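Exercise 7b. Backbone tokens:
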């Protein structure tokens, strides 16, 4: 036969054994919620990409992750754009060195601020950056 044992009365023997998955993702446990919120802040070392991905994927699964990844995204998005702009402008002869220093300073500021925020969030405390535009509500 084709590998499925058939019972003439009941149909295939394995009928009803498989179940579909639910359309809604499972909520995060408190530990996972704090973990993803922490990663969103620590991800600042790579710019706005990690916090943006975490916000889009996990915002409906954990309230703490939604709050903290949005805070991290609001903080890193404008600074990432400025750093990219500085990286482009550093290609200009003569004044490019100034923009190279600015790009490095922005990266160091994002990294140090993200580490401080990540440590606080890992302790379960919400963190607010002192200077944040809050573009995403």
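Sequence design result:
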């Amino acid at each position: 036969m084709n590998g499925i044992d058939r019972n003439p009365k009941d149909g295939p023997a394995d009928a009803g054994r498989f179940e579909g998955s639910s359309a809604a993702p499972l909520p995060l446990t408190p530990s996972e919620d704090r973990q993803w919120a922490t990663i969103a802040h620590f991800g600042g070392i790579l710019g706005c990409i990690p916090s943006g991905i975490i916000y889009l994927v996990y915002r409906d699964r954990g309230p703490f992750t939604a709050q903290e990844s949005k805070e991290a995204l609001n903080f890193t998005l404008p600074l990432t754009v400025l750093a990219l702009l500085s990286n482009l402008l550093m290609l200009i002869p003569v004044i490019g060195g100034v923009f190279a220093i600015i790009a490095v300073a922005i990266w160091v500021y994002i990294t140090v601020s993200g580490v401080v925020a990540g440590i606080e969030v890992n302790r379960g405390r919400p963190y607010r950056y002192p200077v944040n535009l809050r573009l995403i509500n």
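Instructor comment: The chain has a mean pLDDT of 90. Helices lie at 30-42, 49-58, 63-89, 96-122.
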